[in-house]
Amino acid sequence: MCLMLVRYSSAVTQLDVTNFGAVGDGMTDDTHAFLKAWKAVCSSTRQFPTLTVSEGKTFYVQPLHFQGPCKSRKIHVKMNGAFLAPKKKDWKICDDVWKTFSSINGLTVNGNGKFIGQGASWWGSAGDDDSQSVRFDNCKNLQLSGVTSINSAMGHFSIIGCDRANISGLYMKAPKWSPNTDGIDLSKAFGVVIHNCTMATGDDCISVGGGIKNLTITRIRCGPGHGISIGSLGKYGRYETVENVLVRGCIFTDVQNGARIKTWQGGSGHVTGIKYDNIILRDAQRPIIIDQSYCPDRHCKLTRGTNLKINNVSFTNFRGMTATLRAITLNCSSYRGGCTRVALKNVIIRKGIISAEGSPEGDDDVERCDKVYAYCKNAHGSATATIPKVPCLT
Fold this sequence. Notes:
By secondary structure, the protein is mostly beta strands. It has helices at 31-42, 120-123, and strands spanning 3-5, 14-16, 25-29, 50-53, 58-60, 64-67, 75-79, 82-84, 97-102, 107-110, 114-116, 132-137, 143-145, 148-150, 157-160, 166-168, 171-173, 184-187, 189-190, 193-200, 206-208, 212-222, 228-233, 239-253, 259-263, 268-284, 288-291, 307-322, 326-331, 339-351, 373-377, 379-387. The protein has a 20-stranded parallel beta sheet that branches. The protein is elongated and about 65 Å long. Belongs to the glycosyl hydrolase 28 family. This is Polygalacturonase.
């Protein structure tokens, strides 16, 4: 049974969940205590009511939905303690998200607390029923900072429709091999800022989905993981757009991909105004990649092109080592003129310790000389002061 947290009238300012019967011993089910506490906080008429998750305690809870709108214009959740998720066998399923915050404008969630997802109980049987850890849905002006997410079943944080969110100082950790454990998934939002976070996980550190516009990502430490990705976009033929994304001052360490744009065949829409700048690479397997034939399970029927246009993309001031010989991949669709206005400037990528995966297959036109190289198809633009040379860019 999934629990929806309902509101009632109160004039409280600060509430500690232990005052509502929560034990916080990591074994007692504290779900109903959080039900009661949220009712009081969300219905408070005070200026900035606060729900405190007590320091030094671990609260075992089933899936919870913190539902708004609330009476106050601003709500504060002070996370000093830890939330512990049930293992898969103990999950009371009615939702695929462990914690959801929805329709709560002016929400602040901060502190040094932890979300402990117990993902190991899910990873061995990964499938469509896997659980996301924490979702923020339609929370305008969200402030999320300081907290840690450990071993999420799937994604650590999902941010949907949260215009003008500010996300900082987060720490995410899951094993390198853990499936689908994205750090932050974003979609359908305007003016989001993400900065000063550390992400060591099994999938994308940050995944930028459809409907994102004016996104700024700075000072991210990513790795292990799959880099910072635009996409995937256009799955199942969907129309999706991403506009004006800046990724700057990030470090990629032991990543499967670095700066990536990925689209499915058959999709439509556009990606424009993407800037990756001032990136440090530490053994990145595929440091720069545009892939318009994205097919992660290798069972796609790669017979259709994509109408999803990629335009005005730049990669500037990259330094570091690649763990695959193919350092740069610009694999663009032939539809709609390919990828246009692609610019590489001051990109210096040198050979590091080559991983067992090696470079992608199918490069018959490239002579293998154990040197770092670039592959490009249907890409148009410029490359200056770039190593390796990019043959299709002037």
